[in-house]
Write a structure and sequence with these properties.
The protein is of the alpha+beta class and about 375 residues long. Helices cover about 50% and strands about 10% of the residues.
């Protein structure tokens, strides 16, 4: 039995990039031997085990062959006879097809280290074109490593275009596509994910709604800045549906999020941002009533955790006036000091209490306006 560190941990270690997860390949072992050593089996399609102490994944060396459509259409064969080289050749990119033994020696049969030096994302073998998920994975890696100077090898881009021209992308599940998209939104250069998909002719198949946003240089510049993934998503959808009415854009965003299985946290911020971004960017022009209505529409008095995300978004798109990034937090802090209990002690109750609360809030909004003059 031989155990090797493989994949991303080897790649990122060589790049001096943060290593978050470690994956291991076991050569020359059976499932029974793994369990005898305390490993817990978790793999459904092929033998994967959890280390009893570290909790890291250990997979038996395996080969694969195409048996159907999509990224799940593969038959796997794992046995003690499968070599490390046979296991590595089935991987997507050469920089992901390296291994390290327990002495720190790099096993690199497909020139991954050379491609790291060349700063190139290149496929390991023609079998790359059998798995449509790899189109998304390469685009995500480009979103991560483009700031380091990486590019997609022309021959790999050609295989990605070949996949896009087939019906393979149609067999990807919405959940799996979203998983790659969400991870890309959290990378250093998420715009490269979208641009790479566009180069591969895959964007129009996977995210046709985003084409207007990807064709907008200002939008790409905005999402390239440091920000929460949810903020970048909200900016993208606002741009994608910018040429529709507010009511229509709201419905289109809801539909997009339903189709692509976006979590509620992403959908809710996108809806808020699309509906209120214009007012946020022109906050200093709003009167007291409009400012209070904006705070209530954004539900900031009950869910102030959204404030930071909205401010992040404003800082990226409100090019002419960034006053809202300081004025809105200040106003919210003042409004949160309005205590219904104090007003009740003054004799207000029922509808009168509601009016008194609103009047106190409006006065605070007006005080902020007067303070700006």
């Amino acid at each position: 039995m031989q155990i090797y560190l493989v994949g991303g941990a080897v790649r990122d270690g060589l790049l001096n990039y943060p290593v978050y997860d470690k994956d291991w390949v076991v050569v020359g072992a059976t499932p029974e031997q793994m369990q005898q050593q305390g490993f817990r089996p978790v793999g459904k399609d092929f033998p994967v085990f959890i280390h009893p102490e570290s909790g890291e994944e250990y997979a038996l060396a395996r080969t694969e062959r195409k048996s159907g459509k999509g990224y799940t259409g593969f038959l796997y064969h794992a046995s003690p006879e499968v070599t490390l080289e046979e296991d590595l050749v089935r991987r997507d990119l050469t920089i992901n097809a390296m291994a390290m033994d327990d002495h720190g020696n790099i096993i690199d049969p497909y020139q991954g280290q050379l491609d790291l030096q060349r700063k190139q994302l290149r496929h390991v073998s023609p079998a790359f074109a059998e798995d449509p998920l790899r189109v998304l994975r390469v685009a995500r890696f480009q979103a991560r490593y483009a700031p380091l100077g990486f590019t997609v090898a022309p021959e790999t881009l050609q295989l990605m275009q070949q996949l896009a021209a087939s019906d393979e992308l149609e067999h990807l599940t919405a959940e799996r596509v979203w998983q790659e998209f969400q991870r890309a939104l959290g990378e250093t250069a998420p715009q490269q994910f979208l641009l790479t998909l566009k180069q591969a002719n895959a964007l129009s198949k996977l995210f046709p709604e985003l084409l207007p946003a990807v064709n907008n240089p200002q939008t790409l510049s905005a999402i390239s800045q440091p920000a929460d993934a949810r903020v970048r998503f909200a900016i993208l959808l606002r741009s994608a549906f910018a040429n529709t009415s507010k009511a229509e854009s709201i419905q289109l965003i809801k539909t997009f999020c339903d189709v692509h299985r976006a979590p509620n946290a992403y959908r809710d911020l996108a809806l808020q941002f699309s509906a209120q971004a214009d007012q946020l960017c022109h906050f200093t022009e709003l009167d007291a009533q409009q400012r209070l209505e904006l705070v209530k529409d954004l539900d900031l008095l009950r869910r102030s955790e959204h404030l930071d995300l909205l401010i992040q978004g404003c800082a990226l798109i409100c090019a002419d006036d960034l006053s809202v990034t300081t004025l809105l937090p200040e106003l919210l802090q003042s409004l949160q000091q309005v205590e219904p209990k104090q007003l009740m002690q003054q004799g207000f109750k029922g509808k009168a209490l509601g009016k008194a609360i609103q009047q106190a809030q409006l006065q605070l909004c007006q005080q902020q306006i007067d303070g700006q003059k």
